[in-house]
Design brief:
CATH class of the largest domain: Alpha Beta
CATH topology of the largest domain: Deoxyribonuclease I, Chain A
Distance between the termini: 46 Å
Number of domains: 2
Shape: globular
Structural class: alpha+beta
Number of strands: 20
Number of helices: 16
Strand order of the largest sheet: 3-4-2-1-18-15
Strand content: 15-25%
CATH architecture of the largest domain: 4-Layer Sandwich
CATH superfamily of the largest domain: Endonuclease/exonuclease/phosphatase
Helix content: 25-40%
Largest sheet: 6 strands, mixed
Radius of gyration: 25 Å
Length: 528
């Protein structure tokens, strides 16, 4: 790729300022890879208001056996050799930005579903595990296949990006109306295929403690034209479904009234928008996310960031296709110095039997199981921070039966007594990052999973603000619809509530925080 003087100045400026690592994921829908990437890089670097230099590009639906010569010359290219009408993925690393990049390992799927590359990026040579995924709309096995590998083999910062062909909530799908407004789908209008794949993706996210970065950074309640990555025009949708409309005369007569009603309802719909493309990273890395934005193609032929896009609907989605998604990771924000020591209960430090007064101890019952504990431990992917309180994660990954029994007893004791050891919930805060001890993270993960599993699912926005613990406690009990384990969540008061103000504290890095924000969009917390 021959750089213009403007591009060369941009590279030098970015290098001098130690710009954040910028990763883009894009479903190119069968476009020629070199043409697509050239379009992407040239327009982003030269013409956008805030210049973007992609360090890494994830591509999906490449549908190619070989990468074009221009790509291989300018990028370190790792790609599947898959040439059918669908599938095919790639990971490209910018040679200009990272001339010495060498992969420590690479895994390339022969069926065109994923590429995994591990190597060092950035000025400091940080370890990264990069994963580009195309999850076909009928594929329910690929993510299960990737999970155990990533649980055991991922090193450094894990970044997963791609087209997952599903949506999560009502704010991820919209009808585009002719009056330039957006309308939510009703709960009974869910795409059944999305629901099927959604369960697969949510299971994948749980297994690796992953966060939907776009929503995690921009908010779960965001609903406007800047939060969709895919548009399908109503005209094309009608064409593709013409064959399905042919019915026998009797069936037509029986349904004519319904069809007429549907036609009246949909006559003002000009397009259907979805958010199908995602970046996922582990929870503890969210503090290093500088931004996550959808890039739009507009009339001038340039790609710009969402903040620069006009609200004029003519400027959005001129083609029924995917938009690139940009992730910015500022690895310079990661603390490099050792954390100060923190006083913590000896039982957590050594995983020994807790000092429990037998006379004061209520009758324990088997609440949290070893199965839940083992799953929670395997799901954790934590930053390598020196001085983290308590035992390191590696010690928990290899618990012996006696240690597992003791950990289970500790957790059950917390729930039944509604009490926690000294400083159990106190994170160490460095540069806005919250680092909890591993035992707290295991316990919080189990409670978060239970909230998700036991909640009554409703895709309607919560109407009442929640500002203190009594309100949150009442909302949780309503949300889980009188489940027998309702009282298990009372311990949340000790884990997240400021005892002085009774206000809710949702720290970044706590698994409960993300779950509570999703379940209760109008949750008001300290500082919000």
């Amino acid at each position: 790729m021959e750089l213009s003087q403007s591009q060369k100045r941009t590279y030098k400026t970015a290098e001098r300022n130690e710009a954040p690592l910028q990763i883009i994921t894009w479903n190119i829908n069968g476009k020629v890879a070199d043409a697509a990437v050239t379009e992407l890089t040239e327009h982003l670097v030269v013409k956008s208001e805030s210049e973007i230099i992609p360090d890494v590009v994830f591509l999906q639906e490449t549908r190619s056996v070989e990468m074009p010569e221009k790509i291989v010359r300018d990028w370190y290219a790792y790609y599947t050799q898959y040439s059918t009408s669908e599938k095919g993925v790639a990971i490209l690393v910018n040679k200009k930005r990272h001339p010495n990049f060498t992969p420590n390992s690479q895994e390339v799927d022969r069926n065109g579903r994923y590429v995994v590359v591990q190597g060092k990026l950035g000025e400091q040579g940080e370890d990264y595990t990069l994963v580009s995924v195309y999850n076909h709309q009928e594929d329910t096995t690929t993510l299960d296949l990737l999970t155990p590998y990533l649980q055991t083999m991922a090193v450094g910062t894990l970044v997963i990006g791609g087209d997952f062909n599903t949506t999560f909530g009502i704010n991820d799908r919209a009808k585009e109306l002719s009056n330039e407004k957006l309308k939510c789908y009703e709960p009974n209008e869910r795409n059944p295929q999305h629901g099927k794949l959604r369960m697969c993706v949510e299971k994948f996210m749980r297994s690796l403690q992953l966060v939907d970065v776009f929503r995690g950074k921009n908010g779960y309640g965001l609903f406007d034209e800047t939060c969709f990555t895919y548009r399908r025009s109503e005209q094309n949708q009608k064409k593709s479904s013409q064959e399905e409309t042919s019915q026998d005369e009797s069936s037509k007569e029986e349904t004519s009234q319904d069809e007429s009603s549907k036609e009246e309802t949909s006559q003002n719909i000009v397009g259907r928008l979805s958010r199908l493309d995602y970046f996922f990273i582990p929870e503890e890395w969210m503090g290093s996310v500088k931004g996550c934005e959808i890039l739009y193609k507009i009339k001038r032929g340039t790609l710009q960031r969402q903040a620069s896009v006009s609200r004029n609907r003519d400027y959005l989605f001129p083609l029924p296709d995917h938009c690139p998604l940009l992730l910015q990771l500022d690895f310079n924000l990661l603390p490099t110095s050792q954390l100060p020591e923190v006083d913590i209960d000896p039982a957590i430090q050594s995983l020994k039997k807790m000092d429990i007064d037998e006379d004061d101890q209520p009758e324990l019952y088997e609440n949290i199981t070893g199965v839940e504990i083992a799953a929670a431990i395997q799901s954790l992917n934590l930053m390598d921070i020196r001085g983290r309180p308590g035992r390191p994660l590696s010690k928990y990954k290899n618990l012996n039966p006696e240690e597992m029994k003791q950990l289970k007893q500790n957790f059950n004791h917390y729930i039944n007594t509604k009490s926690l050891p000294a400083n159990f919930s106190s994170p160490k805060v460095i540069y806005g990052h919250y680092f909890f001890n591993v035992e707290y993270l295991i316990f919080a993960t189990i409670l978060a999973w239970r909230l998700e599993d036991w909640s009554w699912e409703e895709e309607t926005s919560q109407q009442t603000d929640i500002e203190d613990w009594p309100q949150l406690q009442s909302s949780i009990r309503k949300k889980i619809n009188n489940h027998p384990g309702t009282s298990d969540f009372d311990i949340i008061e000790k884990m997240l509530i400021n005892e002085t103000t009774n206000r809710i504290r949702l720290h970044k890095g706590c698994p409960l925080s993300r779950t509570l924000r999703k379940l209760f969009p109008k949750l008001r917390t300290e500082g919000s």
